[in-house]
Input
Amino acid sequence: MLTPDQARDRALDLVERARRAGADAADAVYGASSSEGIQVRLGKLEDVERSEGEHIALRVFAGTRSASIGSSDLSPAALDELAERAIAMARLAPEDAYAGLAPQDMLARGPWPELDLVDPAEPSPSALRAMAEEAEDAARSVPGVTNSDGATASAGVGVFALATSHGFSGAYGSTNHSVSASVVGGDGAGKQRDNAWRTAHHGEDLPSPAEIGRLAGTRTVAKLDSGRMKSGPMPVVFDPRVSSSLVGHLLGAISGSAIARRSSFLLDRLGEQIFAPGTLIVDNPHAPRGLRARPFDGEGLATTPRNLVEDGRLTGWLLDSASARQLGLAPTGHATRNGGGAPGVSVGNVHLAPGALSPAQLIADIAHGVYVTELIGQGVNGVTGDYSRGAAGFRIVGGELAGPVAEFTIAGNLLAMFARMTAADDLEWYRAINVPTVRVDGMTVAGD
Output
């Protein structure tokens, strides 16, 4: 595995090759990773997986025409050929007035913020196996668990580098550790399955494998003997396992590409009251050890913490350089690169600020409602905001959780849902998008 400095030099070298081959401008992205995972099932070793790889991608410009190409062959001859092919492709591509590198005067300059993304401790294969066995043993020990899909423990390391022809170069490394377990409860047609998992940059930030396993088992058994919901309008409460998806829909709707295409239900609502007053949604790419922490974006611009929603009002869009040019605005440092191709848009570590009520207090006045722990399908229209998804969870009766329910649909419109959203105080900080328990009044449930 290359060091970040070596990775940066690889990207710089490819950019220089592209300039020598005739590119007007270019950028290169280098990525490498290695990982090892151990899976056990029913107490026996099920799978051992080891992967290593590296990839470099080049984007070149010939005037306002551009092309991207990538390769896992990093030999000098292959890189020269890569540059020549990319330029030939660019000269045949259609013109795009909005394409181009990021504004040079906005490029990030070091030193980068200290994000603490690298754990020097590397678990051995035997340690990973012991973690997986501990998680599965704990899950299977929960009364009512009858079978196992297995448990997995893994660890890996990666490096990312970006270089441009107009003066930016940077790289950073990261590590990852994860543990998961999935088990089955019950018998016959009444079987249920559920899981638990955690991932972190540092192994010490994970709960114990036994805790993860017990959670998987408890969740599974809690779903046994699921009933059906009656149809009608009612409050819907989203468990933190699924509440982050609501903020995810917001992020998709404020991406620059959606706004530039005029295909967002939040179009023309900049600065408007979208959520209840007091609602705060924060994007912090500099959160130490955050899953999406990064010192610079996919175009070489500085990343900065920002309130996406402040006092319930939408503060702005998420812009890469192309969508910013199309909208006549400045890019916001939210560009991302997934291998080759043009940049997309992504956020850092996002959270919805917690409210004042505990989850129990949040549901205390609900005579009849539903607590959702699982969402199924992709029934969300990003243009209109119409929302309809299959779900499973628990009844709320008389202000308390009652029996499990499944095979029902929850529906509404995201604009109305955002306006009626109330957050509990149980925010946790281990996901990429961290959202507490959330209540949304006035949704429609379709069951029996």
Q: What stands out?
A: The first helix runs from residue 4 to 20. Residues 4-221 form a domain with the PmbA/TldD fold fold (CATH 3.30.2290.10). The chain has two domains: 4-221, 226-448. Residues 235 and 441 are 4 Å apart (CA to CA).
